[in-house]
Fold each of these.
Amino acid sequence: MNLGTSTRRARALVTGAVGLGVLIPVVAAAPASAATAVSCTSSKAALATKLQKDITAAVAGRSGTIAVGLYDRTTNTTCSLRATNSYDSASIVKVTILATLLWDAKKHNRYLTDTEVSLSTAMITKSDNAAASTLWKQLGLTKIKGFLTAAGMTKTVPGANNYWGLTQVNVTDEQKLLKLITARNAVLSDNSRAFILKLMGQVISSQRWGTPYGTPSGVTWHVKNGWLQRSTHGWRVHSLGTFNGGGHDYMITVLTWGNSTMSYGINTIQGVAKVIHKDLAAS
């Protein structure tokens, strides 16, 4: 879906494989407001101080709840804000779906089928919901939970009854996922990681908002966004991004909830991304 997608279609995210295309009015509690201060650490003390100040300024005065995660391997820099708060995943869970598919294929020593490649491509590059629903049902909760365990994503809770868009996620687990995608590990093969990054680098132009905003020249980006409006707490708007180049190797997760409009959430995410890219480029 692109920025011009109607509210009706955006709401259909919540139905997952059920395919009803209607909003299920589930009343959910807002994410807890604990740990509301930005915390940063780095091998470069001045960088940590700068990031903490600038991220704090970027989120100041924004309505709703914002959670942020940054990790840069090069400078061993980590920043977090509300990193353990849970959010409805919307479409960022599609990266987890693809990772689960590849993890399971590796376990069975097989390549993806042509159909699986096609579905995966549509799911990531166009955020196709029908493709996500097909793969979610094919995998089933046992395999999805198996991947989450292998990945150490212990606080991620798959949505029940095929409502993949209501999977509960947090910054900590999403950052673990991005770390798996961007460095050699025992969970995902090198070919699997390359495939995920390839698709995240081919997202259609209308969905390249969020964490890539302000990416410096010479830095390669990969992104997956999610957006969902519900009857309580407005829009959930999220963005996952990985970035490499300019002497840095980093990943950003921004999750937002309680946005009055989708655009408000996008602007919030991009305000955070802009200062992160700028500060890292100057370090």
Amino acid sequence: MTYSSTAIVALLVHCIINNDVIRNQHYRNTSPAGKTYRLLVLSVAAFYVSDIFWGILYEAHMIAAVFADSVVYFALMAGTVFLWTRYVVNYLEEWSGLNKALHYIGWFFLAFIAVVLALNFFWPVMFWFDEDGVFHSGKLRYYILITQVIMFVLSAGYVLFISKGMDKSEKRHHRAIGLFGFAIAILLGIQVTNPLLPLYTTGWLLGTCILHTFVLEDMKEDRLLELEEILRREEKQKKELGSARQLAFRDSLTGVKSYNAYVEAEQQINEGIASGDLQEFGVVVFDVNGLKRMNDTHGHEAGDRLLKEACHLICEMFKHSPVFRIGGDEFVVLVEGEDYQNRKSLLAEFERQAEENQCNGSPVVASGLSAFRPGEDNSFRKVFERADARMYDRKRFLKAKEKPSL
């Protein structure tokens, strides 16, 4: 159990420090480097499990089982080396000559180990067990270990080399990855002299601890800062959109709601009619008399003043309902609440005021009211058209009452 105890401790520490990587969905949907690192962490955990069983089975002299576990052990070892090269390639995010070489070397190494392990069933070129159940390493196993050392040294050296000129944070990450590669390379080099030492296991434990401390924790902090920045930008955009919406939904001249707001309100009313939730509302359509004549004779500034005064009259009379300017001299009030209950008296007072204004030269506004008829009106437009027709009747009436100009 001495051999297995190292792997057991390594597995426990590995799972504890990489719990977030193993369980967090973010690492499954993140960058290629993040996905590859998660696969690397999982393959290292599987390698530790194989190493644990190897020690137990070897001490129990279960030769057939330990032989099968040895095949799995070397396959997982090759898988971790392959995923390490993939991680380096994806982390660097460039397709340079050295990165290409590392990419193809990783694939070649994985394929080569698969062929060697298949051949080892017939010719013990990599390992074998004698009649007493003692494990022996073939020369090819040493060559493979040396090849792994070279791969780790080259990849680590390459990462360190390209870290020159980077900012402090990126350089720190690159150095940690380089240290990871050199640590495993050194321990593998020592293991060449004694294949039964659990130095490869120790190397991966040391390496993943280095990456977790100096790369992943920094990346989490960077990610948190990035998310905070995204939230700040979204909040700013919401405020900007809110301001833009206010501008788009507010008439710049009179300050009442604009045509855009009117279109949205019409859509909402139609939805309420269709669902049956809306049972009562009224529409008053207004038209300011004499705007064209005012613009032609006194200029557009005078016409703007006329519109503002007319709008003020409408807003003062219908204080509890939204007012919209839907055209040059056209206004609409969606009568609701208290105004809806008093709509007839309010309209009568407004019409009386219009006739009085006609006599004293104040703004004259024609108006027409219609109320929603449930079961008869299937859209806002029908209510509006009735109110609009009554407004034109009222406009003709006021026109007929005008004093003839001298």
Amino acid sequence: MGLAALGNLHMVATMITELGHFALILALGVAIVQMVIPLVGAHKGWHGWMAVAAPAAILQFAFIAAAFGALMWAFVHSDFSLRLVWANSHTAKPMLYKISGTWGNHEGSMLLWVLILSLFGAAAAVFGGGLPPRLRARVLSVQAAIGVAFLGFIVLTSNPFLRLEMPPFNGQDLNPLLQDPGLAFHPPFLYLGYVGLSMAFSFAVAALIEGRIDAAWARWVRPWTLAAWIFLTIGIALGSWWAYYELGWGGFWFWDPVENASFMPWLFAAALLHSSIVVEKREALKSWTILLAILAFGFSLIGTFIVRSGIITSVHTFASDPTRGVFILLILAVFIGGALTLFAARSSAMQARGVFSVVSRESALVSNNIVLAVSAFVVFIGTIWPLAAELFFGRKLSVGAPFFEAAFTPFMVVLAIIMPVGAMLPWKRARISRAVTPLIPALILAVVVGLLAWTIQTQKTILGPVGFLLGTWLVAGALTDLFSRTGRGPMAARLARLAHLPRADWGKSTAHAGLGITMAGIAGIMAWQVEDIRVAQVGEPFEVAGYDVLLKDVTREQGPNYISTIGVMEVSRDGNLVATLHPEKRVYPVQGMPTTEAAIANGFWRDLYLVIGDPQDGGGWAVRTFIKPFANWLWGGALIMALGGILSLSDRRYRVGAGATKARIAPQGVPAE
């Protein structure tokens, strides 16, 4: 390539990235307009000003999408004149990780954050035509206010378009732990969930400003919350799956502060989904539902603060600049503090109309909400306690998995017990005996499965049998609830009616069953896994839990941007070959960092999990072997939960908001229905 061509390429690259920078600043300007004008218009009743909200939301999204596209172009084409590309990319990096490198850093991930924020705002503008004009204007105005705060944060402290005066020939590469397909897709899904909860927050604040919270409001807010919960479920499952196979320690959850930062909003979002049902059906729990909407997004902001403030060290964190942390803390204080102040001022507008007895579906949903909210606060206390102890008492403490498992598990047991019963209870008033009677077969099946698990297990632990009992109870209870909605009559007729049940009913039962499968998977993998750590000699088999493992060979290979040590290992049982696995240990020369690539033979009942380590002085290789029962039930259950959410979201009752139903135009002299 000649000098002229190189000069032209550099000019094009400069133009694209400068246009991206300009688009980002324009997006900030549009967000300010969207924040102010519709809000004033809604207050004054000026329809022209309120109408600015929708096109401004779409335009803001277009500008941010252009900025994000320009940054991705710079990563794909290795434009090292951008400081961000130089610090997080390399010419030898595979294309997938060049693309994912766009959000594999603090500045780029914040740009993805506001892109998704504006996407939800644009979606509300496009699909919110059925909303009352004042509410729609206020929702989009609050959404824009969040955008203004974070766009200002990016422009002032985290600009992704900063340039280097003398561009180097190559970059410093992306963190090797992030060069993985699971981490390429995990952040976008997680952000779609995190940031999607901003819509519930915007609806809550808009309703507080308007002083009107009713069943129609609950029907409008539920689809947005449900969509965010679905994405958050998938994002958490992807992160857990990545930790399982990539880090090489064989775990799926470490109760890392950053893992907790995504789990807490998930718990609050689940509570919000159930609480909004009560507002929609019975116009009760209004204040509690509004508070949950504020807390769900508030804990999303807390998660953003944890990841980007530098107060903790983790492979998940993006930034270690306390100045940025202070900025995010200020955003958190303004929005959550302001919303809670407004919440207190509008308490009189949230009086409940519906009354219900102690034994009713409303009471069951209240119990569900209390368990989910308290469990989220338990996780929060465990997460921040080491920080608080060091800040206020000067003591360094570590709160690890034993605390969380002991403190969090009882709440999940209670939740699993009440869910099938609560789903069967009628609204307003119920008789517990009448609701529980159809669940007796499910209870018997659950007890039998628990006893069977206790009988056949080799390790006498209560965790596995209890987990399988509760998991079976949830799955069988969900199926019983679904079948009970077919009414009475011949079995064939009732089975035929199943296909015509609303998708929301199918979605609820599917999600509850998915939770049961996940619980059983977690209990199985924690109670019955077998771990073996040893020095393995090439050609000498060893036995682990009835499996014969043989290290046949160890080779070295050159990857695109790493050097890999690969083990060739055969696993047999009763003389029959079960799997040939190739665990790896990679070294990335640019960063001088090793990573472990576990080799896993997945199965319905168990995973065979092998990790190869370093060569030993006396010969042989360090090898770690796991037998992990029911591992895939964990992620399969999470995907089934997400599928349940998708089924519910596809129900026309949730896709079409209450206000979207327009009165039909009647002929002259005939009143409209």
Amino acid sequence: MSSQYTRTQQFVNFMQKIVFLHMVLFIMRSIYFILEKLVRKDKRIALFFLTEEFYYDNSKYLFEYMRKKKDFTSILFTANKDLYKILNNKFPGEVTYAWSVKSLKLFLKTKNVIISYGTSAAVFFPYYLHEKSKNIIYLGHGTPVKQIGYQTSIWNKFGKSFQLQSYSYLTACSDIECLMLASGFRVNLNRIWISGMPRYDYLLGKNNKNPDLLQEHPYLNKKIILYAPTWRDGEPTSFFPFEDYSTEQLQSFLDKNDAYLLIRGHKESVKRKSIKKDAALFSLNRVKKAEQDMFQDVTQLLPFVDILITDYSSILVDFLLLDKPMCFIPYDLEAYRSYQGILLDYEHNTPGKKFTSMKELTKGLQAYIDDSTIDQEWRHCVCKTYHHFTDQDNCERVYNQIRKLNQ
């Protein structure tokens, strides 16, 4: 909750939102506990609960893997009507629209629910995922770089932690991530699987450059620089916040290298309109928006990217697997540390140049374009910290763990 509010405003906000939501969740938890006890569970159903408006990320890749195995009846479950229509055309008979009696019956008899997004229990409304009745398997959507869950102050204010969704099992990419998740969500280490993320099977595949994406966006065949900053809770994101910032200089650099700059604001920043607009930046012919409405699945975009620019986003952890240059614009590092918190030593675990001016940026990017092996040993070292596996068996490992649960 922002410190700009007075104590009276904070209290009113608390009464209107937190208490009401607590009451609703308490009632739902009680009702679903009773309903779940009345219905016999089917261990051979794997219900992929989609809470986003797009079909992407780890749930997508694990679903498409498990549906081919046929040991489970794998079903996509969504409360978004538009997404349901799209997916039902692609996977007829394997998708369910959540707002129906038929879906409620399916939900109640399902033992295994698989999710990628869902920190708050409220996002599953009108359903409640009760950890005493189901195997709630959290695939996640990125290795934590910042503090998460119970580690953060926001989830510990006014008893808000009551809203946190409980998980039965979680997937991780390394030992260090296991500790992060166990601390953030108060889960026993024995219930965290070091498996890698399902989407990495695609990212590390030989055919990881989607020809349809290239046909739709032909400039992806050129030198591509992706700028993808993280979400700032309550703070607007600024692109290139340099005193010597110059769109002319940026255009000249891109022209010289026949390169394109893709700007991808974090989906939460875009949704909450917390991005400082720069019309001059997007007027450049070599600057393209690359947000989720254009590139729903960033996993399919990353193979086309030659250099990544970010700050504190977990996208750096994904990009490490591609062994390509990355660099950083941590313009508000100290402020971000104070209100959000960073889990590991930032300087040591961000293997690339840090820019504080336009001159540094263009000079540094030029160096990476001329020699992509700069900082390579550093990247390899950090990659070992974040990734136990660098193969294409991530879906298989998660699938085998789910099989063990249901034997």
